[in-house]
Design brief:
It contains no helices and ten strands. The strands form two sheets. Strands 2-10-9-4-5-6 form a six-stranded mixed sheet, with no helix packed on it. Strands 1-3-8-7 form a four-stranded antiparallel sheet, with no helix packed on it. The radius of gyration is 13 Å and the shape is globular.
Length: 121
């Protein structure tokens, strides 16, 4: 059974930074694209970033482009999201997810339990 465990969330002031981490197990990690998706209060799931299985291709939603950086370490089965210049609208629960882009939020999605990110002064 797929296991995804997120860490690194917290409370940060506007303009601050956080680094999210995701530990993966129980599936062939290096064969699967990975994503970070978020759900803000009262809103649906949004894929904010994806990375292909070898780390050569990435995708960013327009709302985070230039501020967030996704990466992965296949030897450690880890996925990361470096978030800089955080804004209050980035407040959400962030989930590590299998698959790329729209597929990461499709009915076949596989998500971790999530980590809360709150951006507030």
């Amino acid at each position: 059974q797929v296991q995804l465990v997120e860490s690194g969330g917290g409370l940060v002031q506007p303009g601050g930074s956080l680094r999210l981490s995701c530990a993966a197990s129980q599936f062939p990690f290096s064969a699967v694209a990975m994503s970070w998706v978020r759900q803000a209060p009262g809103k649906g799931l949004e894929c904010v970033s994806s990375i292909d299985n070898l780390g050569g291709f990435t995708y960013y939603a327009d709302s985070v482009k230039g501020r967030f950086t996704i990466s992965r370490d296949n030897t450690k089965k880890m996925t990361y999201l470096q978030m800089n210049n955080l804004r209050p609208l980035d407040t959400a629960v962030y989930y590590c997810a299998l698959y790329w882009g729209p597929e990461a939020v499709s009915p076949r999605k596989r998500l971790g339990r999530g980590t809360q990110v709150t951006v507030s002064s």
